[in-house]
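hey all, quick one before standup. I had two proteins in the batch that finished overnight and I want to keep them in one place so we stop losing track of which output belongs to which input. First protein below, input sequence then structure tokens straight from the run.
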Amino acid sequence: MVDGQNFNYYRNSGLIIALFISNSLTLLSLGDDVATGLGQKNILIKGLAIISVFMLTGAAVTTAGAVGFIGLIIPHIVRFLVGNDYRWILPISAVFGAVLLVASDIVARMVNAPYETPVGAITSIIGVPFFLYLARDRGGSNL
């Protein structure tokens, strides 16, 4: 069980690691060979990225439960809006993810009043068509 103090530790540590390696992630998006040629230690950066993802995922699931598609949809939308620089993608994804979750929660409360629809159902209604579009757009035309 995670108490409040440990939760804050994991969340803050994950955010610090993510922001610390954001430049390296941008470099890594150019390809392993290019990043290695520029002197980056790819194994270290990938390991730190995995640790950061585990910490932030655990903190998010502890807070909100298993709300699907938020962490999958938003980075793609933000990358389309701001480009491939992870110094911008990471913080803007956090803000856009919060906005999408609040909007989904409001819709979930209003769609079947006085009962409450699960927020995961609303995010799935948004997420599934988005990923079908993304799969078709990137060459998966046989879906």
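OK second protein, same deal, sequence then tokens:
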Amino acid sequence: MTERTCDATVTSTIPITSAGSTYRVQHTGSGPLSTTVAIAISDCVGVDSMEFQLYDYVDPDSLDALFDPLRDATDGRRGWVELHVLGYDVSIHSTGEIEIRTQEPTIPDTSR
């Protein structure tokens, strides 16, 4: 099996076990942000990083291109993308921060 690596720092190791839990990773390298995102999701969710395919949810090249000019955010521009992957909300920020949260359950409106 080929192992993928990325240059990132895990800033929170809280396991995602309940609603409201957040797993954070900071992309710190010169490699593709999309690789860090894919590995962070696979680590957090507990799926093999070679079996999980980020492109089933977003085009990795487009994600990299979207944030490449904003990587250092020195011009004051900020942005983020939110994905829904395998039952988790994944926020990818222009600063390189990646947040993975459990999706909040929706409560049906029974007042009608």
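Flagging for whoever picks this up: The chain has two helices and five strands. The helical segments are 33-45, 60-67.
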